[in-house]
Amino acid sequence: MLKAYQLDGGNAEERFCYMFNMFVFAIISGMVGLIAYEIFQEVGGSSEALRDHYHE
Hints:
This protein is an all-alpha fold.
């Protein structure tokens, strides 16, 4: 059952749970966004070949 969180009240444990859930959701969303961006770049193709700057 979903529970509505109150940001201005409630105990510390409820606020911590809310903030932790937001933090995890933000990290997962960022990872999904990066993966989607990489897939989009691979499908679209690149204008130039990859270069290895480290071993030059």
